[in-house]
Amino acid sequence: MKNTLTILIILVSTLSFGQNIEEEKLWRTKGVYDSLGNFIERAKIQSFLFSSKSNQFYRLRTQDKLNMETGETKVFVYRDTLNLKASNNNTYQLSDKETLTLHSKDSLTIQFNGYTLPYVKLDLQSNKIDLEKLKSTLQEEPLIESVEGIKEYQFTYQKNGLVKVKPQERNSEWESEYKIIDFNGFIIIQGIVSAPKLITKLEKGKISFMKIDYRFENKNGELNKLD
Q1: What is the pLDDT of residue 11?
Q2: pLDDT (tens digit, 9 = 90+) per residue, 161-201?
């Protein structure tokens, strides 16, 4: 009887979660906050979740790190799987140090060591962009970035994993690392000290993307060939 009751409790919790979460959806973080609710700017953690099942998420995290010996800053990519174990109400245990709380079908938080990461669901579907075609278009020639109609930078993505960045209004240029990440069908371009570009469309040499910065609202942009 006791075992039957335990199974029923777990089943009800799982069903309750399944009714509130959509599978195969992408979520984005909105920063890191301390126990007092203060935003922690220095954290600089970009993170995404993908709801693979009603009780499982895949997690992607990217972070810039400086090598103190060489002075080089590199982009590090971390992936793991979050299996949800029902705790109470809409709170789920991820590990000894992490818990997830589902606030609504579009909002959740992950707590660890006194810190909180809020996530919101993106109203997007994986669009199955051809990764090799994207790389070919991206690395073919210099591209002008336009975000919400404003053109600020020229990017030259190179096959060696480095991108040359040239401001439109200044006579300067620098080079830094970038990564092209395939996250369960969602393609993300992540550079140094820059918001991730979530690719939304590839058509006739034009790359459309959503600029996702944990500090601000999402913005739509394009990468186009030089006029």
Answers
A1: 37
A2: 999 999 988 888 999 999 999 999 999 999 987 889 999 99
What's the token pair of residue 183?
A: 């996250």
Which pair of tokens denotes residue 127?
């669009």
> Cβ distance 58 to 36 under 8 Å?
no
pLDDT for the residue numbered 42: 67
Distances (CA, A) of 189 to 131, 165, 210: 11, 14, 10
The rounded distance, in Å, linking the Cα atoms of 15 and 213 is 33
Please count the other Cβ atoms lying within 10 Å of the Cβ belonging to residue 77.
Answer: 14
DSSP 8-state secondary structure symbol assigned to residue 125: -
- Cα 57 from chain centroid (whole Å): 13
Can you read off the two tokens belonging to residue 191?
């550079």
For residues 93 and 50, give the distance between their C-alpha atoms in angstroms, rounded to a whole number: 17
**pLDDT 10s digits, 1-34:** 444 333 333 333 443 444 467 889 999 998 899 9
Picking from 216, 21, 31, the residue whose alpha carbon sits closest to that of residue 117 is 31
Rounded CA-CA distance 174/82 in Å is 37
Angstrom distance (rounded) from CA 199 to CA 114: 33
pLDDT confidence tier of residue 150, bands split at 50, 70 and 90? very high
Residue 43's pLDDT is 64
Can you name the residues that pair with 92 across neighbouring β-strands?
Answer: 86, 100
Which residues make Cβ contacts (< 8 Å) with residue 187, sequence separation at least 6? 129, 131, 134, 180, 181, 198, 199
Query: 197 φ, ψ to 5°?
Result: -105, 115
